[in-house]
Amino acid sequence: MKKYIFLSTFFVALSLFAYDFSPYKKIVCFGDSITHGGYYHMYLQEYLAESDPSHPREVVNKGISGDTVPKLLKRADRMLKQEKPDLVLIMIGTNDLQFTTRFAEKDLPFDAAYRKYPVFKRFEKELGELVDIFNKAKVKVVILATPPYNESANPEIKAKVRPNMNTSGVRNLLVIEKRLAGAKGAEFIDIYTPVLKNLLECDAEFPRGKTDRVHPSKKEHLIIARAVIGKAYTPGAKEKKAMQCWDIQRQIQGIEAYCSRIPDSCKTVEEQIRFYKNWVAQLKGNDFKYWNKMLPVIIATLKDPDAKLTPLYQKRDTAFKKLYQK
After folding, report:
1. How far apart are the two ends of the chain, measured CA to CA in Å?
2. % of the chain surpassing 70 pLDDT
3. I need a surface site. Which of 114, 266, 281, 326 has the fewest CB within 10 A?
4. Quick one: DSSP state of residue 95?
């Protein structure tokens, strides 16, 4: 418990931050599955439409499940050309930790961890390169803290605790994110502290369910949105319309995810389909069952992605406009 108290006091001043969205018209939320399937961007969109209806602003979900900083780097230029944002909110880091280092120590001080484990130096370098891309494009950057992992010892939570996803690992990312934002002229918003507080206070209620320790719940996404907004915001009358935007964007990002998984070496449609067939064939258990069922959909999408995406983008534009109709 002392560890959590230390973290809360270390970052508490950063949570008292209200971001001014008034200069911006298009806001992109750039990240991994926590963004892809999450709700914080929906709440931000609802808040902006509700609080300032005379100045339309779009909040766009550009999260893809499984993404790391290198994957964001790979698709940053395409996103800029496609969406033309003037503000980007980056929330990343979970998969960079989850799929790399295995920590032997749980409470290793930052400097020692930075020297010992390459993941931290690599994360800082690559995240810095990502911010540089946006700075060069004259797009304002806000780095949202990597959300906390649920380390609960509650025996009813069946998901195993990943040794490299402990608070020590995420804490080190926060130190990097904060100093990188200062060095690159970006902003850093601590969403970690209020989300961790909720995890600790609501442990008996399984805030992320019994099978997931990584992905914040819808309630936690509201906490994230409130940390960004800087107010005790409560969703209003436009939440239903904002959810319609959310659903369309989730579908778009699902299709984008199919394409992003394909290696650059697969140039033709035939090569891309062959890659997916081989990839699915090596899966096991429930993963195989799910992706084998999805394979015909993926193949049809790869043959003509625009046929799927164009009507969805049109629906998204219409849904955004409805948010600001009187």
Report:
1. 49
2. 91
3. 326
4. H
**Cα 323 from Cα 50, distance rounded (Å):** 9
Q: What is the pLDDT of residues 215-225, one digit of tens each?
A: 999 999 999 99
Distance between CA atoms of residues 220 and 231, nearest Å = 15
One DSSP character per residue, 78-95 reads: HHHHHH--SEEEEE--HH
Residue limits of CATH 3.40.50.1110 in the chain: 2-238
Structure tokens at 193: 């502290």
Contact 131, 124 (CB under 8 A): no
State both tokens at 304.
């003509």
How far is Cα 137 from Cα 264, in angstroms, rounded to an integer? 24
- The class level of CATH for 2-238 reads alpha beta
- The rounded Cα 80 to chain-centroid distance in angstroms is 17
Summarised one tens digit per residue, pLDDT across range 293-308 is 999 999 999 999 999 9
Amino acid at 136: K
3-state SS, residue 142 = strand
Query: Against a cut of 0.85, is the pTM above it?
Result: yes
d(CA 44, CA 118): 35
Residue 26 near residue 87 (C-beta atoms within 8 A): yes
Residue of 11, 18, 12 whose CA lies nearest to 227: 18
